Amino acid sequence: MSTYLYNHLPLSAALSRLAAGGVSRVEIFGGEYTHWRPDEDPEQLRALVVERRLQVTGFHLPKEEIVLASEPKYRDALDRLKRGLRVASAVGASSAVLHAGYEVADSRYGARERLVEAVAELAAAADREHLDLLLENLPRFGPAVFGHSADELLSLVEQVASPRVGICFDTGHALVNGHDPSESLKRLFPLVKSIHLSDNHGPKPDNPFASDEHLAPGDGVLDWDAFFETLGALGYSGELVLEPGAQANMSEEVVLARSIAAVESHWRRLARKGTRLL
Ligand SMILES: [Zn+2]
């Protein structure tokens, strides 16, 4: 379960609410709107986790501009991401999730080369911390997002060529891009080491930013039967991370309960059919 659901709260409160809701394994969301900042002490965060007897499976790195930034800003962004990797390691995560950055189709600025260089440098830093670095497929909000297609991610992973680099597949992001999440997952497998599960109502061309609704699985239009069938058929054995967000029409506790119930029902259905998942 991701702390994203409680992103409006301080991290200590978010972790407490998740623990109170029966969650034992968490991914810490250190991204935009975050309740975690890179200048915070990793040991303090570790203490928050240990006190609540939580296991941290992954750490979502903050969103940083590592492609089109000027040289000093680029180095600062990389430094903050490396601090994030140290925190991920301190709290016992086995992987860190990275948003790769901005569209790099315009090669005049050497943007593509810079992205490869940045991810390679972060992969080396992740390796020193015994972490996998997972690139997430992103929603295509305007022209400025890199990694919205499977092909882009695959070519970047190939160019960086580090055994530490894999993919975090986000079901909701695939859906808002108008892709079939099951087909996208098949394209990216076996590089996928973690999956973010959330639902939405598909692309909203008039307001793309509102399309990534982060609903509980089953509360949008994603075909979860097909998606879980695909997981079973592929023999997926990586992390499954529920990543719903706070909703206006129900409490976070209801969103949490609905998310867990949805995944459990698909799990049971697969088990009845003899498919072992995880
Ligand atoms: Zn995600």
TrEMBL record:
User: Which keywords accompany this UniProt record?
Assistant: Isomerase
| GO MF, any single term | isomerase activity
| Isomerase listed as a keyword | yes
> InterPro entries from the xrefs?
IolE/XylAMocC-like, Xyl_isomerase-like_sf, Xyl_isomerase-like_TIM-brl
Cite the Xylose isomerase-like TIM barrel domain residue spans from the record.
18-246
Pfam families on file: AP_endonuc_2 (PF01261)
Q: What is this protein called?
A: Sugar phosphate isomerase/epimerase
Organism source for this protein?
Geochorda subterranea
